[in-house]
């Protein structure tokens, strides 16, 4: 039921505005002057200045400064005017501009609000090109209403007006909205005697009896309202049939069908497609308490899901990168910054639709949603690729120039196996890596290109990462991909040797995910590789067993460049089918393979401090009966080695003992002695007390 125009009652013309002494000042918040409008001429004078439709008291801004007529929600006093705006501009960047035949005019507003008095002031951009779009009607509307002293009711009435007439500008719905002043304003008055608040409150009420002569019009409007409230559902149609039963004389079924079909068409074409449309689920959360409607309730994750679905936005957690992927944002926003943009868009949506949601609550909901939608892109690739049976690993070894080297081919296959296993790591009982496939060779030989190519996608590969375990960002960067290449390996290995080794083979990574408050421990899904130019780059006296070194001879760069994405996917599918499925952790080296690795890695190891001096002074070809038990200090003294400490010499001897089983170690009164060959040219160690002892008996 709508309020009825009283043709004998005088038209309403009076309302109050506050205005400033400036024009087109966006950041101005002072509106110290008040004017009571009785006529078009009165409004012309005020509309030349920036003005607001509600009255505000003086107040202090955030810096404590007193502002006269302070435009703020907290200083709202009252309003007897409901200001809205029409700009005839499509807000959704994904949709085409509004065609001229659908542009709204003040006459359209009058038809939608019959009997409601309002003034119109054409805005400064009326019939002018704006933002590259053609000229079109743009105007401000001042509806006259009863005095409203509650700011929430004032806001609810603006939303109610927007709901009734979606062509109003949804960006002009804030409670303290102001209008720019217009030079030589053009003003019009549309008479009526029904205050707009009365019209809106009675808008949805049906009369107990719908008299003849108003049946079609009443049912058409009611059908549009219930479709907007409930969507095109069985419930909406049931309500429509109940309304039809109130007709003083029943309408024919054919007429009712025509009315309903027409309302459905309007709903789907005009209402549902509008960016300002509030869907039924969101409407249930809207705050219309001051208007006698629904009470606001907190937003839940289900509500956020519905809003995301309505906006065609998906939020997923990428298990490989550990990052959130947001898809479906309007083209105006970049994909790179989508994770930061999304919460702002959602908060704007909730504010516009009067939905109660704090940023903390929204972040918690997004964490839940992204985790529910988690995905593993490498796993998706493997499951969507069927291996064709060709031996791609053999081709890969040929491309690297190691097909005839059984040991290096083993390292390649084991590392590929490890890379698949880590991508599919177990969430409950995660496991770590075993080795870092390291390609040693000249600069510009295509080493990095090789790894980047077999990583399938550029964002699955990190080139030249530098890991500083004291800086969390470098750790996140190095583990935020499937395959990570260690940069400047020879210099990286100079620092934090033990900690770095442990990190490379760690089972898990711990850091905070986007939108999350607490840290998350997740399985390691990154497989490390390395490229290095110098041959001697390992400086770990224990043998650097984590580095599986191959030396291409040479790497076929042209074949690498010619590898298609499909070829690489087939290669990984072979690894998945023939290695991973047979033994998930079958990539680990056996005890014998580790021993061979440590021996082979000697050629890539840098000499320890003092190693050259010590080995040059010892005659390892001397017969065993010439060997002696020697203290470290005696060795340095009798060999005349300077600049090498006892600790450094001890490390050298420990390394040599690991390589040569003839060298033995014993403790005498907590002092280590080493069984060593004589000095060069069969020169025996001088026998000085307990520092040197001859070998007693056979080894």
From TrEMBL:
Chain ranges of the Primase C-terminal domain: 204-269
InterPro entries: PriCT_1, VapE-like_dom
Organism of this sequence: Catenisphaera adipataccumulans
This protein's name: Primase C-terminal 1 domain-containing protein
Pfam families: PriCT_1, VapE-like_dom
């Amino acid at each position: 039921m709508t309020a009825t125009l009283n043709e004998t009652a005088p038209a309403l013309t009076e309302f109050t505005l506050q205005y400033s002494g400036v024009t087109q000042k966006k950041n101005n918040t002072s509106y110290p002057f008040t004017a009571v409008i009785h006529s078009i001429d009165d409004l012309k004078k005020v509309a030349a200045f920036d003005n607001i439709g509600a009255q505000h008291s003086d107040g202090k801004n955030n810096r404590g400064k007193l502002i006269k007529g302070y435009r703020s929600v907290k200083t709202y006093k009252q309003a007897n005017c409901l200001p809205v705006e029409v700009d005839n501009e499509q807000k959704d960047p994904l949709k085409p501009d509004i065609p001229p035949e659908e542009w709204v005019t003040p006459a359209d507003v009058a038809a939608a609000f019959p009997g409601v008095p309002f003034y119109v002031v054409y805005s400064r951009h009326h019939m002018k090109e704006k933002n590259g779009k053609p000229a079109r009607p743009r105007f401000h509307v001042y509806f006259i209403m009863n005095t409203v002293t509650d700011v929430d009711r004032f806001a609810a009435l603006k939303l109610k007006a927007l709901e009734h007439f979606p062509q109003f500008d949804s960006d002009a719905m804030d409670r303290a909205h102001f209008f720019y002043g217009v030079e030589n304003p053009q003003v019009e008055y549309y008479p009526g005697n029904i205050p707009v608040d009365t019209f809106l409150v009675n808008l949805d009420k049906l009369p107990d009896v719908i008299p003849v002569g108003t049946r079609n019009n009443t049912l058409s409007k009611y059908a549009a309202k219930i479709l907007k409230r409930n969507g095109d559902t069985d419930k909406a149609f049931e309500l429509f049939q109940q309304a039809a039963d109130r007709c003083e004389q029943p309408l024919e079924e054919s007429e009712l069908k025509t009315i309903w079909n027409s309302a459905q068409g309007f709903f789907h074409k005009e209402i549902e497609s509008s960016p300002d449309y509030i869907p039924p689920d969101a409407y249930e959360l809207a705050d219309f308490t001051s208007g006698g409607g629904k009470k606001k309730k907190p937003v839940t994750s289900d509500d956020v899901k519905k809003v995301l679905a309505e906006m065609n936005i998906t939020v997923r957690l990428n298990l490989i990168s550990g990052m959130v992927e947001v898809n479906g944002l309007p083209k105006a926003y970049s994909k790179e910054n989508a994770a930061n943009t999304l919460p702002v868009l959602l908060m704007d949506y909730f504010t516009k639709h009067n939905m109660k949601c704090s940023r903390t609550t929204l972040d918690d909901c997004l964490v839940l949603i992204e985790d529910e939608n988690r995905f593993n892109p490498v796993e998706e690739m493997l499951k969507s690729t069927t291996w064709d049976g060709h031996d791609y690993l053999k081709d890969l070894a040929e491309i690297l120039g190691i097909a005839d080297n059984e040991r290096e081919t083993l390292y390649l296959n084991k590392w590929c196996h490890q890379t698949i296993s880590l991508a599919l790591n177990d969430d409950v009982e995660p496991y770590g890596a075993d080795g870092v496939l390291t390609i040693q060779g000249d600069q510009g030989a295509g080493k990095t290109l090789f790894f980047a190519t077999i990583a399938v996608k550029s964002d699955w590969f990190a080139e030249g990462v530098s890991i500083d375990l004291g800086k969390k960002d470098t750790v996140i960067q190095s583990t935020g991909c499937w395959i990570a290449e260690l940069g400047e390996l020879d210099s990286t290995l100079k620092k934090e040797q033990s900690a770095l080794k442990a990190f490379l083979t760690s089972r898990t990574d711990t850091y905070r995910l986007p939108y999350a408050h607490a840290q998350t421990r997740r399985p390691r899904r990154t497989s490390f590789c390395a490229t290095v130019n110098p041959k001697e780059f390992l400086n770990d006296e224990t043998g650097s067993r984590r580095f599986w070194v191959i030396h291409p001879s040479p790497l076929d760069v042209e074949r690498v460049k010619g590898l298609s994405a499909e070829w690489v996917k087939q290669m990984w599918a072979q690894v998945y089918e023939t290695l991973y499925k047979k033994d998930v952790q079958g990539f680990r080296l056996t005890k014998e393979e580790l021993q061979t690795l440590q021996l082979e890695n000697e050629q890539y190891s840098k000499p320890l401090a003092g190693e050259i001096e010590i080995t040059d002074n010892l005659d390892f070809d001397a017969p065993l009966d010439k060997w002696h038990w020697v203290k470290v200090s005696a060795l340095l003294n009798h060999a005349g080695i300077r600049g090498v400490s006892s600790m450094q010499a001890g490390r050298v001897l420990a390394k040599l003992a690991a390589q040569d089983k003839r060298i033995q170690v014993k403790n005498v009164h907590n002092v280590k002695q080493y069984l060593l060959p004589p000095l060069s040219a069969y020169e025996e160690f001088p026998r000085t007390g307990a520092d040197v002892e001859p070998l007693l008996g056979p080894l």
